[in-house]
Amino acid sequence: KDDHVFYTEVVNKDADYEDFKVYNINTRENKKVLEYGCHIYAVKDENVIYGELNTNTLNEDLYVYNLKNDQNILLEKNVRDYKYINEGKIYYTIGNDENKSLFSINIDGTERTEIMRNAEEIYAIDNGWMYVKKFGRRWVYDADSDRIIRDNTFFLIKISLDGRKRINITDDFYRFVKLENGHIYYLDEQNDLHIVRSDGKMDSLIAENVNN
Fold first, then answer.
1. What tens digit of pLDDT does each residue of 62-113 get?
2. Which residues contact 28 (CB under 8 A, 6 or more apart)?
3. For residue 23, how far is the Cα from the chain centroid?
4. Rounded to two decimals, what is the model's pTM?
5. Which residues contact residue 43 at a Cβ distance below 8 angstroms, ignoring those fewer than 6 apart?
6. Which single residue of 23, 96, 140, 193 has CA 20 to 30 Å from 76?
7. 5-22: per-residue pLDDT in tens?
8. How far apart are the C-alpha atoms of 99 and 72, rounded to whole Å?
9. What is 45-85 written as a DSSP string?
10. How many CB atoms lie within 10 A of CB 117?
């Protein structure tokens, strides 16, 4: 970009830490912008989105650094996982393995919004919608007790980027395969491969016991 190459250099492979550097093709100047201890997630235009380990929470604090004006902004503390950047918004989770909430925030630190609780993964963003793995509970028949019980499960949810509209694709979800031509391919809890329309309708079994 503008005769500059942006790249990361691994400093500590075990800790997954990187230095972020900028190389000027014309002057051959190689400048270290961010020091050891940062984990680079994305570079968007003039902004570097990165995390820095918080030793108190053992999660990361999420920052954005502007290459043009050298401004550094703390976006969020206790970030469990950076997820996505889309049209100037950053998506990430806060919490721990058992309880994570999905948030969005503008790249300038404004409009912080909680989108969903108990969110696990974002698999895709397409046409104003996110496809998200969500932990929850469902009613199932238990043959041993001959009654209906509540069972822990994972849902695949289609959710608008502001979190206001939600469509349940399936409540028997294990792994996302791909989104293609308006259809989702996924594995259920028995490793059976399904295809379903992106609106959650017309779920069809393709193959059973898929290993690869």
1. 999 988 888 899 999 989 888 788 888 999 988 887 788 899 999 999 999 9
2. none
3. 29
4. 0.77
5. 6, 49
6. 23
7. 888 888 877 766 788 888
8. 29
9. TTEEEEEEE-TTTSSEEEEEEETTT--EEEEEEEEEEEEEE
10. 13
Tokens of 37: 């201890």
Strand 129-142 and strand 47-53: the pairing is: unpaired
Residue 145's contacts (CB-CB under 8 Å, 6 or more residues apart) are: none
Token pair recorded at residue 159: 């959710």
- CA angle centred on 131, ends 130 and 135, rounded to 5°: 120
Alpha-carbon distance of 99 to 134, in angstroms, equals 11
DSSP assigned state of 200: S
Q: How far is CA 177 from CA 123, 174, 196, in A?
A: 9, 10, 12
* β-bridge mates for residue 10, sequence order: 18
Q: Which among 131, 116, 45 has a CA at the least distance from the CA of 87?
A: 45
| Model pLDDT, residue 192 | 97
Amino acid at 76: E
